[in-house]
Input
Amino acid sequence: MSLMKSVIVIGTVDDYEIRDLLTRGDQPYGWLDADLVRETLGIYGASLPVVIVDGEIVLVQPTLEELGDALGVRERPRADRYDVVIIGAGPAGLAAAVYAAGDGLSVAVLERSVLGGQASYTSQIENHFGIDPLGLPMTGAHLARIRGRQAEKLGTELLASKSCSAAASTSAPAGARSSAWPASRSSSSAGGTRPARPR
Output
């Protein structure tokens, strides 16, 4: 999981997917309405949306995968074998990662979207352990970022992969060595996926 970066999005109301990904990922961003800056910046409909990362990387009509790469959230596994592979980085998956890594196991978490799973859509979390009921309201996305940092501090690798949904519904090949499905001694599915029955 990357550190927060400076992100500016230039687009229209139709560019919802990019804004949704940034919001659910707890990534602050600036928004410029293309209709207001079109002539000043020379940007026209065919080249929208435009995303500027850290004032250096300019993405024109990026896919969500390309944006994830620019933000550093899509990373390849550092190892080809783990003690535990967890599919789904929702609250349950991240909690499992913290406990497993805290016990000294090597852990990888695969997530096809953003940290937090469905909880990342929630504007105010109140019913999770550790939330201060007298503190400031916390979004699901922010809670997921905190839990992700805790998991990473203990050695967990958080990996975004489009293939993890397929991995959740099929058995991992024996001795697998692909970046989409790291081999493991144990796998856990969290966040509503449907693992295959053992054969």
Remarks:
- Residues 57 and 75 are 18 Å apart (CA to CA).
- The chain has two domains: 7-71, 81-189.
- Residues 164-181 have pLDDT under 50 and may be disordered.
- The two ends are 34 Å apart (CA to CA).
